Amino acid sequence: MPSIPPPASVLVVGTVAFDTIETPFGRAERVLGGSATYASLAARLLTPDVRLSAVVGGDFPESHAEALRQRGVDTEGLARDPEGETFFWAGRYHHDLNHRDTLATHLNVLATFEPELPESYRDTRVLCLGNLDPTVQMSVLDQVTGPDGSGPTLVVMDTMNYWIEKTPGPLGEVLERVDVLVINDAEARELADTPNLVRAAREIRERGPQTLVIKKGEHGALLFTGETEAPTVFAAPAYPLEEVLDPTGAGDVFMGGFAGHLARVGEVTDDAFREAVVVGSAMASHAVEAFGPQRMLELTEADVRQRVAAFHALSAIPARLVA
Amino acid sequence: MPSIPPPASVLVVGTVAFDTIETPFGRAERVLGGSATYASLAARLLTPDVRLSAVVGGDFPESHAEALRQRGVDTEGLARDPEGETFFWAGRYHHDLNHRDTLATHLNVLATFEPELPESYRDTRVLCLGNLDPTVQMSVLDQVTGPDGSGPTLVVMDTMNYWIEKTPGPLGEVLERVDVLVINDAEARELADTPNLVRAAREIRERGPQTLVIKKGEHGALLFTGETEAPTVFAAPAYPLEEVLDPTGAGDVFMGGFAGHLARVGEVTDDAFREAVVVGSAMASHAVEAFGPQRMLELTEADVRQRVAAFHALSAIPARLVA
User: Quick check: A235 and B237 CB within 8 A?
Assistant: First the structure.
């Protein structure tokens, strides 16, 4: 994979939504949410050129779009369907915050979302395909010509169990064109149909993505690079938090931070991927400290740097042991 | 805590058992097992003076005791009750190997086990209290005078949900006298009655153990040292294995490797504890690659060194990120 001249442009395609969130620690009613919201805010904190493609309904307040713009996100690709309603999700987290029940999913305008990228987005270098119908992901992939007509330099993708079960064909076609797949452990096991994550990683990487990140929530993340048969594995811990208020969006923040870091450093080496996992983890650990996107709307680069340093301290093995 | 002149003596108290193990990959019938077996074999690979205290029945073949001695374990404290039968455990692991059903637990001679330490064991410096009735753990603790009559230099302890639920009083008394508690995440949550591990760690450390290791199986381990209110946390990954044949004894091998490393280096600093967690994890990752104690009976120091190096590679964050 070629290196990317930094800072590279990042396009995040996904959902912009209203979320109603219940956790053991409180409730947030119809707050700004969606994968593209979280991921673009995260990426933008790291790199200047971050574009968003999503759709909202006539009920979407201009103040929310303005909040994204104030944080520097390019919202030219935020389509509005005045006749429709914005995608709505409601969920309730269990006591341990590791499990949640979905109480409502109203696709609304998302049901007919066919993103048409603005001209200004087509030269995107780093494409982040949020969790969406794989045919929509493919359509976006086809529209990005990249700076020289050969397509995006790096494609990062998320998906979920629903698409793995319902649309394996189209999902497989997108996977073939993806550089980095970022999914959670349950999704990896389901996608590869094996409980063992090392075997799952090999199976998944054989289908396309040269690089694989498996998110394990409070247990951190695994990064697979190098040869498929003899992978190089990096295990990042999760930051041990005493107060998790709301895990919503943590995975999207991770992907946005991951892609944002790569765009900033302009490298796609194993070291850069490791750094990107730590930066994404650091940002996700901040995101869960408040309800909805609140923390992401306030987060500073200094906050991220500080937590990245904490990740170093957290995982440092004394050098003497291998001396 | 004072440093320990290396190599320090280690005493492992626990069970020596017959195990019948079923996993999706095979079955082992009445093989040598028990926490003291696994832990003493692990410790002995790292440090020369490892003593074992346990009880077996008249059905225990001398060849098993001889196997322990051949690996250098001092079995003077292996009591034999010729009238009784050896502790027997049978379990079946689920598809993902993270869960198991206990099919049988016959305490047999363990039901009346009242260890009386040989004179030669009383000066022990590093005492490993395997998962046993806390009144038995306390009795052993009282019998160890240490080299100067003030008791063992370092007490490492394991326990399980059964004792947390059934004997909270005696368990609390032992905890007050323990330096390092090594338990798994479910036990930590139950002992502290909170799902959050950071809060659980604080609560547990307030009851006695200055150092706490929380084992998370395939997700690695957390080490809490330093101030109880503002702990220093170390997150060790688990080695990503493609073939786990039998997880039986992995936790005991971890504790034995942990204690063995501390005895070998004669230090109880944060760095030494981090190293001990990595060494314990490395040994446990070997142990699960074969059925029963087979791998532990063959393991070499070179195997351990090699895997410890792999742990470094696995968790190394590029230095540039904090430069």
Answer: yes
- Tens digits of residue pLDDT in A255-309: 999 999 999 999 999 999 999 999 999 999 999 999 999 999 999 999 999 999 9
Neighboring chain B residues of A233 at a CB cutoff of 8 Å: 240, 314
A233/B contact by beta carbon, under 8 A: yes
pLDDT of A43:
98
Q: Give the residue among A19, A21, A37, A17 at the shortest CA–CA distance from A94.
A: A21
Q: Does B220 score more than 90 pLDDT?
A: yes
Across the interface, whether the CB atoms of B308 and A315 are under 8 A apart is answered: no
Q: What are phi and psi of B189, to 5 degrees?
A: -65, -40
Nearest to A196 among B195, B242, B278 (CB): B242
- How many beta carbons lie within 10 A of that of residue B178, not counting itself? 23
> How far is it, in rounded angstroms, from Cα B203 to Cα A249?
30
Q: Decide if B318 and A271 are in contact by the 8 Å CB cutoff.
A: yes
- Distance of CA A103 to CAs A22, A24, A25, A93, A319, Å? 10, 15, 17, 10, 49
Q: Are the beta carbons of B318 and A275 separated by less than 8 Å?
A: yes
pLDDT at A1 over 90: no
A–B CB contacts, 8 A cutoff, strictly below: 106
Residue A2 pLDDT > 60, yes or no? no
Q: Sketch the domain layout of chain A as residue ranges.
A: 10-14+37-84+118-317
Q: Are A286 and A307 in contact (CB under 8 A)?
A: yes
CB contact under 8 A, A235 and B314: yes
The ipTM is 0.91
Nearest CA in chain B to A239: B235
B10-315 carries CATH number 3.40.1190.20: yes
Class of CATH domain A10-14+37-84+118-317: alpha beta
Tell me whether the omega of the peptide bond preceding residue A7 falls within 30 degrees of 0, making it cis.
Answer: yes
